[in-house]
Amino acid sequence: MRGRRATCTQRFNLDQPGKETVQESHAEDSLTEANLFRPLLSRYDLPVIEASIRWLQLGAFLSKTEWGLRGPWVHTLTDSGRAVADAGSFPEEDRKLFYRIDPYAVFVAHQFNLDDQDLIGYLREEVLEPNGFVVLDGRAEGVEEFRHAILTKIQKARFFVCLLTQRAVLESGAFVSSVWLYQEIGAAMAYEKKPLLLVEEGIDPQYVGELQMVYEYIPFTRSNHPKVFQSVLRRLQVDLDAALIPQPKPARDTQGN
Strands, E, within the chain: which ranges? Predict the structure, then answer.
């Protein structure tokens, strides 16, 4: 809407031949409802668009310019709306209000054992947190805590990453991962997440075969995991761009400051 002009043409005295008059009115940074909605309908459902516009109105980012008591009207950016358009993002305090799901939260499902600490540490400290993402995991105490707190974390996070590492050896010599991880994947499915599975070499294909048919998974080894895990960041960033969500602010710059 920024930089767009809406024009209203009104005709008066149509019932008085020879006395008809035409009046044009303009509103800057404005669009008619049709011109505002139509480009969005190809990407979003109508209820989502209507709810978003209502939120913008309540937040005083969007108002109406009306001509006459019952005349036509258009959607117009307020001063706050213009500031957001120029900045390319909403103020932090406002962004917290319209995201029901934290767009920068990543739930990382993993085993809590010493063998995997280097893997988890790298994913958290070298890939996700330095680039502005918040890491959540299934650390909890007791079954009730799992049922409530962990499910809440999965629901809150926009992203779900599961680190499927070796747990128990099968008769075939292949490995299976923790049953808790499969349960967390199931919870992510219930909340309509798109799980990204990082699968350690040696995991029995039977235990990821059905999953890979529905969700993306990336194989890795203990020696190549840094390169593989870096690809996770690119996937998250592409998802945010596709959803028109601003990228998170890095926790530190490239100089390490």
Answer: 5-12, 21-28, 30-31, 62-66, 73-77, 102-109, 134-136, 157-164, 168-169, 175-176, 196-200, 216-220
Residue 255: the pLDDT is 43
In tens, the pLDDT along 7-20 reads 887 777 777 787 78
- Cα 121 from Cα 19, distance rounded (Å): 80
CA distances 180 to 57, 108, 138, 183, 200, Å, are 44, 13, 9, 5, 16
CATH topology of domain 5-98: Arc Repressor Mutant, subunit A (1.10.10)
Q: Tokens 């109105």 identify what position? A: 57
C-alpha span between 1 and 189 (Å, rounded): 37
Largest CA distance in the chain: 97
Q: What's the rounded mean pLDDT across residues 49-62?
A: 89
- Number of residues written out for the chain: 257
Q: What is the pTM of this model?
A: 0.63
Sign of CA dihedral 153, 154, 158, 164: positive
d(CA 216, CA 162): 11
Cα dihedral 33→36→42→44 (10° resolution) = -90
The class level of CATH for 102-242 reads alpha beta
Tokens of 164: 């499927």
SS (H, E, C) 8-63: EEEEECCCCCCCCEEEEEEEECEECHHHHHHHHHCCCCHHHHHHHHHHHHHCCCEE
pLDDT at 141 over 60: no
Q: Domain-by-domain residue ranges, the chain?
A: 5-98, 102-242
Tens of pLDDT, residue by residue over 67-87, are 877 778 899 999 999 999 999
